Amino acid sequence: MKLWDKGGQVDAQIEKFTVGLDRELDNQLAKYDVLGSIAHITMLESIDLLEKEELLLLKQALRDIYKDIEAGNFVIEDGVEDVHSQVELILTNTLGDLGKKIHSGRSRNDQVLVDLKLFFRDKIRELVGDITTLFNSLLAQADKHKDILIPGYTHLQVAMPSSFGLWFGAYAESLIDDVISLHSAYQISNQNPLGSAAGYGSSFPLNRQMTTDLLRFDSMNYNVVYAQMGRGRVEKNVAFGLANVASTLSKMAMDVCLYMSQNFDFLTLPDALTTGSSIMPHKKNPDVFELLRSHCNRIQGLPMQITLMMNNLPSGYFRDLQLIKEEILPALDEMQECIHIAQYAIDNLTIKDNIIQDPKYRLLFSVEEVNKLVLEGVPFRDAYKKVGLDIQDGKFDTDYNVAHTHEGSIGNLCIDQVKDKMKKVTSQFHFEKLDEMTHDLIGK
Ligand code: ARG
């Protein structure tokens, strides 16, 4: 049952420990293993390592496996080490010796790399789609609540007037930078490792440009040793992308928890989205935002986790790398769930009105008073001093007339510009190439 079987039996405990969770996680890579294999055999035929008829038979069998995977009928059997072994086993069972020809010029080391890179491209596409939906929700809320003023804080001390327009819009724009970081992970994933085999290439005249084109990779990892060194690095870069998204969401979640506290009282969630207490009958807690914060804080530890797992590994393949799948694959799902729930909760927030009328925000407009004097020709430092002394002497009279504020940053959310920026960033992925690839390799 092992690709490397030479007649001996593997110790059951060793088998269990070395396979670990890998068989389960590999299921997520199955589709990509088939796509990579179709590209590989197409290339093998072009360099005469397969006959035309052989290629057709293998391609058809691989397409059948792909359909089984999509229909949920693909399983990695007990005793089979991983997805790569299972696919080869099915081919050998259905096509006999022909199935055994598929692995020329390839190793599971470049195979798992290519699987992961294809998988990450798809996952990043899903994430960017989800992030865009959340981004649109945040901008819709920003637009809807642009006139609702809230205190801005520095040092958590009341500072200057802000607005819910600015607050929602800030997290929307933050997501654009996170997508830029995901784009960098995408570019690193978008380089073909196939042909590097075990990490030292092959003596066959493999046409690596051909598999690069078939799999719609932008480029390849030219150096075969570096291609293998990319294992773990690709995952780490994806993790950095996730960590950036997570840092946006965890900060936003923290703000919501604060703003929902009675001491702030800026917003509420509908009762159905809150949870209660077993002892305090009045409680309506924002657990959803607390767990969002916690999930996102955990995700931010991921790059460090992967760094430590790769720390001091020399060049070349090591089984250590397998374990990184246990970190990065579930984290991708965790991230997606967080984005979905964040969007759902954000859409359902109720924003309070007349927040800044509370006397505790009396000094919120002190800079406005200074600016008014500046407009009258008083030098800024003198105006600052005058207002400062008035405050000290209790002579400061807050003017809630925010006409100036509305002409300045608060009234100017630049929603269209922010939307354009997101569009520009997302158009750089060229996700349409992924569908082209599947269409070419699998057909429809
Ligand atoms: N499950 C392995 C991994 O994720 C696949 C590659 C196995 N290669 C090997 N030389 N044992 O790394």
Automatic annotation (TrEMBL):
Its EC number is 4.3.2.1. It comes from the Bacteria. The keyword Lyase applies. Keywords: Lyase. The keyword Lyase applies. This is Argininosuccinate lyase. It comes from Halosquirtibacter laminarini. The lineage of its organism: Bacteria, Pseudomonadati, Bacteroidota, Bacteroidia, Marinilabiliales.
